[in-house]
Amino acid sequence: MLEVALSHRFAGFALDVDFTAPPGITALFGRSGSGKTSIINAVAGLLRPDAGRITADGRVLFDSAQGAFLPPHRRRLGYIFQEARLFPHLTVRRNLAYGAWFAPRHALREPRDRVIEMLGIGHLLDRRPAALSGGERQRVAIGRAVLSAPRLILADEPLASLDAARKAEILPYFERLRDELSVPMLYVSHSAAEVARLATTVIAIEAGRVSAQGQAADLFSDPAILPLGAREAGAILTARVARHHADGLTELDAGGHPLFLPRIAAAPGRAMRIRVAAHEVILSRHRPEGLSALNILPGRVLTVAEGQGPGAMVTLETPAGRLLARLTKRSAALLELRAGVAAHAIIKTVSVAPGDIGAGGDTSEAARADQMPR
Amino acid sequence: MTGWLGPEEWQAVALSLKVSFWATLASLPPGILAAHALARWRFPGRQLLNGLVHLPLILPPVVTGYLLLIAFGTRGPVGGFLEDLGIVFAFRWTGAALAAAVMAFPLMVRAIRLSIEAVDARLDQAGATLGASPPWVFVTVTLPMALPGIVAGAILGFAKAMGEFGATITFVSNIPGETRTVPMAIYAFLQVPGGTEPAMRLVIVSVVIAMSALLLSEWLGRAVAARVGGSHA
């Protein structure tokens, strides 16, 4: 459990945040320049805030009232930087060993071989960082942080400097860190897709303040507190792989309703997060017929939020979870959508976590089930 | 070699090498410290330290030598104290080494400082987050990364010490076998009739040593750079 309360004044910018990060991955989510990196640097001890208090598992890292400031090397936090920052003069093996060497003897540490295996860096051990690709470097940086026996892992946009293919390569490792290691993580990102996929808890940061915090699924389906533009809005549902069909489709069970998408490599029974972008959802008051779309979920309108432009954001409660739909104000008026009315959501594209990278989610594994040849 | 060089000349060459070696060795630790402080730390008096380090470069060497004589002479404040401890600089080869070290110091610090500044300071932060205290970060990250510059600085300092004349002659005079280094031997030979020939031989020795130092520093620099930033282990 990490508790952060701090305020700091930069030239022309003020940071003033207060939040708690429970175990799991807590995402600090917001636009570039909103102060996310400053927060994580304050937690790491690389920035000394003007005022506030930071504690990790009850241990005081910083407390301006008591004048307490633990220097970074005594905080025992694994920091994964955006640009890897591996030591160029050391081999991968010695980079990985660096943090472990300074960790106390009794520290709880992850078994080295397991981390190396998990990150797939066993064949790189004798190389130097200059001989690694961007994705390999970032994986080694993750391993270096994890193997320093940290109490908390900090990750500052660890994927931002990588292209889409490299991101797809690294994201699964963060999922494994979340699922297989006991260490909590603070993850800074401005990408909705990344956060939707990884985060347990989301702290939305806007202009140096916390604009919203909560469970990822709740936060992403609430248009009122969505800290991003409508283009990136999208809800997260949890579904289970039901079966694989002979025609190349995989059927998911989303709250008792089937969702189809092109075959994904996951065993039946496995739960996955799916992200449905708001602009990929069409609403209908009646159950549509004679439509090519396969993925239709019944539901009830929770809210209709109208912005300043011609658009409106509709939240729909479905058996699979909350959905967001972006339509025009005109359509919302024509359909007489308001809280409480029944509606059907027609989902054009469902994207599944393993391919859910980038704003639109239209990567190779994202699915347009309705347009698949049958 | 001894056959070609006269005993007096050989003595001067050996003394020069000894003086320069100790001058370089003794000034390297404070040189690295000063370079690191100037490159990385922000503290009051930083500009003053910078000025002090560079002073021997801009002052006339005679002035530096005279200041050393005042401070480190047997009746000087520092020299008198050190004499009680059994350390004497005045008119000894140790004094020649001290003068050479002081004169070589600015060049050495400049080279090392540049190489420390070239080490990405964000790597220091990475080291700190991994649990390394500032001295450990310095030893495990900054120092090995800056090694090419440190080697270059040391060799530059050595070459400068080999050539030191003004401060040395003012501080410790020109005593054969004690403080008569190669430049001073050349100067002495040129003062007497028939001295051009031995002087010429010492000039050749000087050129050879200087060239060797330069080539060595190039080669070491490249070898170290390959080890530090090279692609494969």
Automatic annotation (TrEMBL), chain A:
GO molecular function: ABC-type transporter activity; ATP binding; ATP hydrolysis activity; molybdate ion transmembrane transporter activity
Keywords per UniProt: ATP-binding, Cell inner membrane, Cell membrane, Membrane, Molybdenum, Nucleotide-binding, Translocase, Transport
SMART domains: AAA
Domain of life per record: Bacteria
Domain ABC transporter per the UniProt entry, residue ranges: 1-232
Ranges where the Mop domain occurs: 290-356
One GO cellular component term: membrane
Entry keyword annotation includes Membrane: yes
NCBIfam families: modC_ABC
Record's protein name: Molybdate transport system ATP-binding protein
Originating species: Paracoccus isoporae
From TrEMBL, chain B:
Domain ABC transmembrane type-1: 13-215
UniProt-listed NCBIfam families: modB_ABC, PRK09421.1
InterPro entries: MetI-like, MetI-like_sf, ModB_ABC
Described purpose of this protein according to its UniProt entry: Part of the binding-protein-dependent transport system for molybdenum; probably responsible for the translocation of the substrate across the membrane.
Protein species of origin: Paracoccus isoporae
Molecular function terms, GO-annotated: molybdate ion transmembrane transporter activity
Domain of life: Bacteria
Topology versus the membrane: Multi-pass membrane protein
Record family assignment: Belongs to the binding-protein-dependent transport system permease family. CysTW subfamily.
Transmembrane segments: 20-39, 51-73, 85-105, 136-159, 199-217
Name by which UniProt lists this protein: Molybdenum transport system permease
Record keyword Transport present: yes
Gene Ontology annotations for the cellular component aspect, listed alphabetically: plasma membrane
